[in-house]
Amino acid sequence: MGTIYKYIALMLILGLSSRAFADSDIQAKRLYQSLTGITPSAQEISLISAKLKQGKSKEAALDIIDSKNGINSKGTFYNVTVKNFATPWSNTDYSKLYPLTDLTATVIGWVRDEKQFNKILYADSVYMANGISMAGNTVTTATSGSQPLLYTSTTTTDCNGIPTCPFCKDSAVKKGRILFLDPKNTAKRYCRFTAMSETDFRNGMSGNSFYVPTTDTKLSTGLIKSTNAMYEEMESNNLNLADSNVLIEKSQEVRLHQDPVAIAGLFTTRAWGFANYTAGTNRRSFQSTMKHFFCKNMMSINDTNTPDFRVRRDVDRKPGGTAATFKALCVGCHAVMDAHAGAYAYYSFPNGAIIYNQGQVASKMNHNAIYSKGFITQDDSWINLSNFGQNASFGWGPQDYGNGLSSLAQMYSETKEFHRCMAKTVYKSVCHKEAESKSELSLINRLVKDYEVDNYNMKNLFVKTSLACLGN
User: Fold this and answer.
1) In 10 A of CB 140, how many CB atoms?
2) Residue 188 forms part of a structural domain
3) Confidence at residue 202, expressed as pLDDT on a 0 to 100 scale
4) How far apart are CA 174 and CA 196, in angstroms?
5) Are 424 and 463 found together in one domain?
6) Res 472: pLDDT
7) What's the structural domain count of the chain?
8) Are residues 162 and 250 in the same domain?
9) 251 and 154 co-located in one domain
10) 127 with 108: CB under 8 angstroms?
């Protein structure tokens, strides 16, 4: 019997070298698939495997992400993995099966450009398309009524059949429509809305810096306030969002909002507005924030000990005819939520676009006065009543109260639970399971610490998480 055991041991020793190579190939394939969702070629497996054996695992992961050193993942980390990571934030169903939007494109851009991700909640930033050239067309200016009109001089056809931009108010910036010839087929003429100045338009044409959708004849790079068509066109054309010449960062001012005070990062993208500021009472934005950025459902934050002086008038204090139900259940969510939701008081989403009226509380904030003594929203002030009690575990940012959505978003960005939620969401994205076991939750804690040390570099968080999952 002893001879048999010695034989088995010898075979195991002799097989270690070949198994090590096989294991590294398996890990290379797993790493590639976890980051991209597609299968690598044999040559790519060999290149990645070699770096894993050399202890260059992070370099291997970055090669996959950014298609470097012989790896060509075709932008799928950004177009697929990061898009799926953020898409549930952009729609009412919290689904991954939703088109590209300004919100998801902005998340993709922040990950790609390694921006300080915690600031994405309040920064003045939106990522837009850039690409197909209109270089070579000559631009002249004219007016249609009182609206400025930019068009090519190579044709006398005008854009009078297309309505002017209703939200373009700033006289310092020419806004109207572009008429141009299709660069690929000069027999075709298109009109496009624009929010660009004449100078920017001229420079953009000569510098090959415009993306012009080829199918939507009423869309330009300037009009994202009231339509998602640009982003859907980008996706249908399968543009590589890893390319900084395709997806570029711009200010939300003018493009999404006329008033810079309205701007609050992802919270003021069109997709977030469509999902959260349409009808209702704007409370949905708080609910979505808890789910997406803190990984909490409403029942998990229910704290009936929270002071209820900010609960609005539309909440029945005697649901079903008894006050006990309100005290035992309803107040726990509304006391927490309504204290924050004042920050959304000036926002609404009529006619396909976010509208911000500074100093004017949206009527929906105070409708349905079931309980006359409830809180009346008079401004956009907010207060965090969760620094004590069970929700103190969030590790909230230092600001306890303020005015406006931007200040609330900044408080969220400095909250420990936001960083932890991002780590958990990334884990689910690349490891394809929830972090639930003791060892998995311990890993999340380590990833959060590294994420904070890395100055909230989300790309690095994806890399480190995917490498950690190779051992599972």
Assistant:
1) 11
2) yes
3) 56
4) 6
5) yes
6) 56
7) 5
8) yes
9) yes
10) yes
Q: Is residue 315 part of a domain?
A: yes
In a domain, 62, yes or no: yes
pLDDT at 66 over 80: yes
Domain around 461? 416-471
pLDDT, tens digit (0-9, with 9 covering 90-100), for 369-417? 999 999 999 999 999 999 999 999 999 999 999 999 999 999 999 999 9
Distance CA 203, CA 314 (A): 53
CA distances (Å), origin 51, targets 31, 74, 449, 450 = 12, 20, 26, 22
In whole angstroms, give the CA distance from residue 85 to residue 422.
Answer: 10
C-alpha closest to that of 247 among 264, 230, 272, 270: 230
Residue 377: strand, helix, or coil: coil
Task: Find where tokens 């799928």 sit.
Answer: 76
Which residue matches tokens 């060509």?
72
pLDDT category, 260, cuts 50, 70, 90? very high
- pLDDT digit string (tens) for 294-315? 999 999 999 999 999 999 999 9
Does residue 334 sit within a domain?
A: yes
The reply to whether 329 and 373 lie within a common domain is yes
Residue 381 neighbours by CB distance under 10 Å: 17
| pTM of the complete model | 0.81
What is the three-class DSSP state of 248?
A: strand
Q: Quote the CA–CA distance of 253 and 97 in Å, as a whole number.
A: 29
Measured CA to CA, the distance from residue 27 to residue 31 in angstroms comes to: 6
251 and 308 part of one domain:
no
Cα three-residue angle 342-345-349, rounded to 5 degrees: 135
Q: Does one domain contain both 383 and 466?
A: no
Among 396, 428, 456, where does a domain finish?
A: 396
b/e map of 192-213 (b: 16 or more CB within 10 Å)? bbbbbbeeebbebbeeebbbbb
Is there a contact between 193 and 222 (Cβ–Cβ < 8 Å)? yes
Is the CB of residue 371 less than 8 Å from the CB of residue 315? yes
- Tell me the per-residue pLDDT of 198-232, one tens digit each, with 9 for 90 and over: 555 555 555 444 444 433 333 333 468 887 877 88
Say which residues have a Cβ less than 8 Å from residue 39's Cβ, sequence separation at least 6: 29, 32, 33
Domain end, chosen from 396, 424, 452, is at 396
Residues 243 and 313 in one domain: no
250, 304: one domain:
no
